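Complex 264.
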Amino acid sequence: MSRITLPRLQKLYTDGIKIAMLTCYDSSFAALIEEAGVDCLLVGDSLGNVLQGHSSTLPVTMEDMVYHTGCVARGSRTAFILSDLPFASYQESREQAYRNAARLMAAGAHMVKLEGGAEFARSVGFLTRRGIPVCAHLGLTPQSVHQLGGYRVQGRTAEAGDQLLADAIALQEAGAGIILFEAIPADLAKRVTAELQVPTIGIGAGPDCSGQVLVVYDMLGIYPGRPAKFVRNFMNGASSVSDAVARYVRAVKDGSFPAAEHSF
Ligand code: KIV
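Predicted structure with 3-methyl-2-oxobutanoic acid bound:
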């Protein structure tokens, strides 16, 4: 199969075919995950938690992201690769955002992701007009965990829901090619998805997004303590890691994941 591109993702979206995304941080997993049918690999700054053992994503550096993006790109032949701009690598100015996004693209990313709403619309426009596709991450934005007061579901009030919708529209108008929602009520994700003309990807955002993402360690059952409500352990009943990933892809594509029990 040839490489999945942004226009191909847009076509999946317009054809009503769900997009399956997983986080990925290294070359071996990149090959395995895409072979099992995943459309998009996200080199997430969640690597700060699951690889580095930090309690937040805040310590993750540009050097970390460039290194892991290169590892994933070298193992990948077919998936569309997104890479996170880490904390303090884009918030200062659109020029700073461009400089650091360009480093991720040079390392092998096909799109960068940044956390935040309409306040970053100018940066999104600056990047996309210069050939760097952008995914905007709304809802629970882990880089703002201290501002949010913890890892909490966002968008629960009517006001917060309207704000999220306004942010998503502003980011789409600025050029964002994908909007990602983390930990928001399923009915809000459904409403905003219906208003947009670009795909939405959900994690803890219910079944009505255009696609889903999970942290690969979570869906393989590799986490200390209790999993988040929105996680399903796809290793249960699977014969191998590849089989678990293939089951995830099938469940996303046929709409059986996430179920009501994974949604807010
Ligand atoms: O860093 C990450 O893994 C993410 C996902 C939680 C969407 O941003």
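The mean pLDDT is 98.
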